[in-house]
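User: Sequence in, structure out. Go.
Assistant: Echoing your sequence, followed by the structure tokens.
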Amino acid sequence: MIDETIERIKAQNPPKDGDYIGEDGFLYCGKCHTRKQRDITICEVKQIVPVICQCRAQELEAEKEQVRRREMQTRIKKLISEGVYELGFALNTFDNDDNKTPKISNTCRRYVDKWDEVKAKNIGLIFYGPKGTGKSFYAYSIANSLIAKGVPVCITSFTRLLSAAVNFDKRQSVIDRLNIYDLLVLDDVGVERNTDYSVEQMFNIINGRYGVKKPLIITTNKEASEFSNPSDIAYGRIYDRILEMCPVRIKIGGESRRTAIAEKQRDEFIKILEE
């Protein structure tokens, strides 16, 4: 084992032009002037063995960091391909936040910064409010930030999941796959069709997530009161689970950002055509 270690160190830090023997009799690096040899005692016999000099140690660490970054990029691409079903939302990031609601923006950023604690305590979020006000933007910004850190995230909707689970043989596999992810984002909760089948499958999905005790984020056009007091009794047990899993509820108000963006684009197009 000792011989193998010595040979490995020699291979990692071979002698180079400029290396020299110091006054103590050991080989020194001609670049950083730190030792490339030292002595050890094995079975009462002193032996000179190679060691990594300081500059080579820094080079090796830089090489390891490059490998880690490449592996992380590969992992991120894989996470996006497997978990982000609406690829158009990949541009929803905090870098593109207009910061119109700084308190909400800061809360979302802290959710990412404190992810380890959030995950351990299973803290979910509900973003609710009118259409186009930025609910999905905030949810996706959180998701994209976590994906960039290598966290497995799934972003989807009940509508998409209900379509995927229409085959009886696939229903449990859909739920099982969702629960692999550390974070599940369900977008536009409340727009799905109200049928006995959809309600049953929605409960199975939420209950499955509840069982694995992993964070859930939902966005909805419904008011918070509709979750606490649903008009449809069939949704009661679903919303009870959601409220328990998502104790932090964030109301997104104001005018529709989609409308404002569309109006801005319209004005820009008119200006181009008038010039």
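User: And one key feature?
Assistant: The longest helix spans residues 54-83.
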